[in-house]
Amino acid sequence: MSQGIESASVVPVESAGNALDELLRRGAQRLLAQAIEAEVEGWIADRTACRDGQGHQQVVRNGYLPQRTILTGVGSVEVHQPRVRDRRPVGQAERFTSKILPPYLRKTKSVEELIPWLYLKGISTGDFSEALQALLGPEAPGLSATTITRLKAVWEADYKAWSHRSLTDRRYVYLWADGVYFNVRLEEPGNDRQCILVLIGATAEGRKELVAIADGYRESEQSWKELLLDVKKRGLKLAPKLAVGDGALGFWAALRKVWPETREQRCWVHKTSNVLNKMPKGLQGKAKAMLHDIWMAATRVDAHAAFDLFVETFQAKYPKATACLVQDREALLAFYDFPAEHWVHLRTTNPIESSFATVRLRTDKTKGSGSRIACLTMVFKLVQSASRRWRVLNGSELIPDVIQGVVFTDGLKQRAA
Length: 417
Known about the structure:
By secondary structure, the protein is an alpha/beta fold. It has helices at 2-9, 13-45, 109-112, 114-120, 128-136, 145-163, 221-233, 249-258, 268-276, 281-295, 300-314, 319-326, 329-332, 343-346, 350-355, 372-387, 399-403; strands at residues 59-64, 68-72, 75-79, 82-86, 172-180, 185-186, 194-203, 208-217, 242-245, 263-266, 369-370, 408-409, 412-413. A hairpin with a 2-residue loop joins strand 12 and strand 13.
């Protein structure tokens, strides 16, 4: 019995991995085939009433299209798509086009989205094929250095067009701003302190949108001012009601010059980190809990009470920590003048933080270099990918009230006298 167990457990790791890969590919191929078959059958079923004078159905299946290979996240998958024939006269006949499998698709989006991630991780163009083959298998087609270069050129054109688009029809109620550092050292001399400036806005419908991406010098006032003025010049005339960001003075100084009427909300995640960094590790757990009590308070009065308690508790021994907190007191509590349903979105720059969590790097940089436009393009592609997972703001039906200037006290709408 023990010999049987022992012999059964001795399976080469490589063989087991290959078997699992093959199982996943077959499963993906089977599911894709079933989905396409169902799509074709549904399309034909919707046209069963299309018959000729003898009652024969005009829209029917007609064998299969030539087999093709699609590169997916689990490797190459063979596809055998049914052919549809529409025998109605010219002008009435329709052409079936699969929404699941567009005619010229050769790579799924999940594969293409690997490329910007790898670039920001320091992979050079010439090494992409090797890196992707390690992820997708040695038979991954269509991912040569030439193909990667061509893709990057297309994305660069997309980014340039997007960064010059008109914003005359846009209105952003809230704005999140942050400077993001990547492990890409730009090739121009002296750009070792360069960062990517990111703006995300909330529309009148409560949807989050990427507003702008640009490179800047260490989040300076001039860099932020140039970005905000560019956005304004392209048609964004109405100032956001509230802007959310960390304590970087550059953004706030620029905001006050471009949109002085916009309220300021400091990010509690950044502020908490900054305060705790000025305290001994042994006290950080207690201090963090007390900071949590401030921004989670139900009312502004309760928040001020928790604020005062923190200052009184730590001011004598840790004056730098309390001074860091006190200097932004009003800006940290601005969210109380907006709908309570929006608080979870307004207290932090999380829409930006979460999108770049795996590539953000504030200290170390790789020895590799990249061009300015290439880095901006890859960041643009990453955010495009992440934006598909952004959810609508809680309480989005209250945004029109915010736009109209309705007063909210402790998150509650106040009725007109």
